[in-house]
Write a structure and sequence with these properties.
Blueprint (H helix, E strand, L loop, with lengths): L3 H33 L2 H17 L3 H42 L3 H32 L21
Helix pairs in contact: 2-3
Length: 156
């Protein structure tokens, strides 16, 4: 063969196609798994149950520990959100760089693809909201009824 670059290019194309297909399949599987296993949604209830079961907390301690756990859960949610925003910015930067090497027709196709992704994300966010509404505000569901904390014990 007098043109080895064609063979190399063909192998590279097969490799890239396999990587893309593998990535798509993996993302679909992981997304479905992650949807059912959101650790941040279970953080506070599981932690409070563990503390209540193992530490034999008094009512006053339970109220104070619950507030600390709620505060930590809020901080973890903020950190998670900040990380998500950084990931979105990295994706936008990637798309901008890719758009620079595309033809005008390909740029239109890229914009359509980005719009489809935005719609999919919108649907996924809406699917998550009912779960959050049903479960109540962050930190509720520690095996104790929502609402005001129990009265302070009488120390007189």
């Amino acid at each position: 063969m007098n043109k080895p670059w064609k063979v190399i290019l063909a192998f590279l194309g097969v490799f890239v196609a396999g990587a893309v297909l593998g990535g798509v399949v993996t993302l679909r599987i992981v997304r479905d798994f992650a949807r059912d296993h959101r650790p941040i949604d279970r953080f506070a209830p599981l932690l409070m149950k563990r503390y209540a079961d193992r530490l034999d907390l008094t009512d006053e301690q339970r109220v104070r520990v619950r507030e600390i756990v709620r505060k930590t859960e809020t901080e973890l949610r903020r950190l998670r959100s900040d990380g998500f925003k950084e990931a979105i910015a990295a994706g936008e930067k990637m798309n901008a760089e890719i758009a620079q090497i595309l033809t005008p027709e390909q740029r239109l196709a890229l914009e359509e693809l980005k719009q489809e992704m935005r719609e999919r994300w919108k649907v996924e966010r809406q699917n998550r909201l009912p779960r959050a509404d049903r479960d109540g505000p962050p930190g509720e569901g520690f095996g104790m009824p929502p609402g005001p904390p129990p009265p302070e014990p009488d120390r007189s």
